[in-house]
Amino acid sequence: MIAKSKPMRASVAILIVGVVCALLPGCSANDAAQQGQSTSPTGEQPLEISPEAKSRRGSIVESQPVATPSPPLADLKSKQFTVVYRSVSGIDGTGRDVSGTVVVPEGTPPPGGWPVIAYGHGVTGIDDACGPSGYPDLLGYDLVVASLVSLGFVVTLSDYEGLGHPGTHPLLEPRTAAFNMIDSVRAAREIAPSASTKWFAVGISQGGQASWAANEFAGEYGDGLELLGSASMAPVVDMSKFATLAESGWLSMEQQALLPMLVHGLRATHPDLDPTDYLHGALSRNTDVWLACTGPLVQQRLALSGELRETDSTPVSKEAGEKLERIFAEYSMPQRPATAPMLVITGANDDTVRAQWVRTAVENACGRGDVVEFTVRPDEGHSNLNGGPRLSQWLTERLDGAAPVDNCSEV
């Protein structure tokens, strides 16, 4: 259903446009082990997928052609579809319906079919009104999708479970995000028989984490598909130091404004997380504004951000801070060795996900033997990251079979 209110234009780094014309004082791992608390990544814990759910992965439940695409997409020779497809919960292994968008180039595909890009969007919200597929401009992602289609890719943009379709969104839970992205490729190939089995996972912010996770789970979960690599822009890959900054009063305004979304969103998988332990003052008031993804409420957020104080985001106790830190640590990347090469680009001036947090995740991935090309772009941040030129070149290199750049030794 299309929302009647004017959607928020997401703060999206325009990934390709320039080529073709978005944390606590905590316990250590040893402390947690002594207390009997697990800090193991979610992905290291075995998950049994029900046979019914496994057999229906990526199958189309609903499909509707988009008659009037947004201008960037309307200018292309392509077909756009709003879909609901089957995927799997990374929490309990049962089937879920997930909505999304599929855009297919017209014309003659290359030998083997159109390669597919599963694109992961950034944080839009936490409820079913926040799926990009429900809006003509895809909540600001239409230009990115159009740019990728222009390069000769089938593009699928998953809303993720619980966004755009009834359900609960497990914010930042990496295994579910990975399954949703991988199954969106299966759904795209059902919509477009001209699509190849070759695909990429690409994303920004929350989608950067999702694309990274999709790479790690593709070897086990992506059977029948051939992942050529993943590209993660400003990825939300490790927020475990978020709480440390909060207690010290060092959260940026952008981080404080994001905190209500994070705390309320994490309650989907950790219902015992109490928002009053972390949100005070201006952050505890006007919850509908902080959680809004569309309409006039979004416009009020900037004004409310000016009322924020350091103490508004300080955990009420050391124990509360440690609890939030453990949850972020469970969902941090890497979870397991990657399946294919990785491109990771972040900005030195990122005030949401600090460059050092991303660097640490890359270091850990390199330590697992992953092949990673990592770049920190100077004078750029979370919402103005320009990784497009390198991304376009990197995609071409993978399709051509060139050896991937691996600068792990320099990280």
TrEMBL record:
Pfam families per UniProt: LIP
UniProt GO BP: lipid catabolic process
Keyword annotations: Signal
Residues passing through the membrane, by range: none
Annotated signal peptide: 1-22
Chain segments carrying region Disordered: 31-73
InterPro entries documented for this protein: AB_hydrolase_fold (IPR029058), Lipase_secreted (IPR005152)
GO molecular function terms attached to this record: triacylglycerol lipase activity
Biased composition (Polar residues): 31-43
Descriptive protein name: Secretory lipase
